[in-house]
Amino acid sequence: MSEAPLLEARGLLRRYGMRRGLLGRPVEVRAVDGVSLSLHRGRTLGLVGESGCGKSTTGRLVLGLEPSDGGGVAWEGRPMPPPGTPAWRALRARMQMVFQDPLGALDRRLPIGAQVAEPLAIHGLPGSRDRVAELLRDVGLRPDQAARYPHELSGGQRQRAVLARALATAPALLVCDEPISALDVSIQAQVMNLLTELQARHGMAMLFISHDLRAVRQVSHRVAVMYLGRIVEAGKPDAVLQDPAHPYARALVSAIPHPGRRQARILLPGDPPNPADRPAGCAFHPRCPMAVALCAREAPALKPRPGDGRLVACHLAQGDATLPKAA
Ligand code: SF4
């Protein structure tokens, strides 16, 4: 894509300190370890991976809701102002986040209309009953539902109300963190369709964070797969999710039930990753069915794969190593 990105993150880093056991020595956990990504107007980047891989932390770092320990974020080509400053607060009106649990995101004691109007007051924007009605209609709610309390709405209606509130400031960027995982399956498709429609109408960029690969494929223009705090593969959804190049992405994709597919599910050996105990070399090597000696020594860089240019962090995909010959 030739258009300059709305937001560009380079080498984001987030570390936490923790202790192993009560008297154990302190260890450093790298929740996000050098993540770079670009978000473009009218486009969605899907971020996928197992729970604990760092995708939600990445979303918060991008918005400045959590301090970064390294790297930086540029908005419209300029460095993002430091979080908490007046310049950052002014920019926050243009970036909104939608969380997983709509009931938790809404105030149970306030009617929906008052909550949709809240961001307008916070950011000093003109608010009126008509504007709230317009926002509710935009997400498929009726203006008279402004008087309802969160518990009087269904799960899908509550997520629509959360979206109406997020749209109140006409954001240029929406970060959606698992926005459908708390909803009934029957309602998930409606919310996915709504997100696509809203993007077509308003042209905002979206970072769609989810462990649901089918949902990511439906809404995303590009997709990035994360493992233990790093992006291991990135490209167009049809390419990455139909023919993944990284062995971890292959295992993830193989877990999606697909009636016509012959390939069996790839079951990874070993325990799920522990961010406090990051393996040397390629962090995936203890579980990787294709690991070779180099993988335990050297971490592969995320770079374009020879041939098709897809970004992959794997020695084999890059041609840096060859599979050992069968005995
Ligand atoms: Fe597997 Fe090695 Fe590739 Fe890592 S670098 S994904 S261990 S083959």
UniProtKB/TrEMBL annotation:
GO molecular function: ATP binding
Domain of life: Bacteria
Subcellular location: Cell inner membrane
Membrane topology, as annotated: Peripheral membrane protein
Domain ABC transporter: 13-253
Annotated TM spans: none
Chief localization: membrane
Pfam family, one: oligo_HPY
SMART domains, alphabetized: AAA (SM00382)
Keyword presence, ATP-binding: yes
Gene3D superfamilies per UniProt: P-loop containing nucleotide triphosphate hydrolases (3.40.50.300)
Alphabetical keyword list: ATP-binding, Nucleotide-binding, Transport
Family the UniProt entry places it in: Belongs to the ABC transporter superfamily.
PANTHER family: D,D-DIPEPTIDE TRANSPORT ATP-BINDING PROTEIN DDPF-RELATED, TRANSPORT ATP-BINDING PROTEIN
Protein name in UniProt: Peptide ABC transporter ATP-binding protein
Taxonomic source organism: Paracraurococcus ruber
Native organism taxonomy: Bacteria, Pseudomonadati, Pseudomonadota, Alphaproteobacteria, Acetobacterales
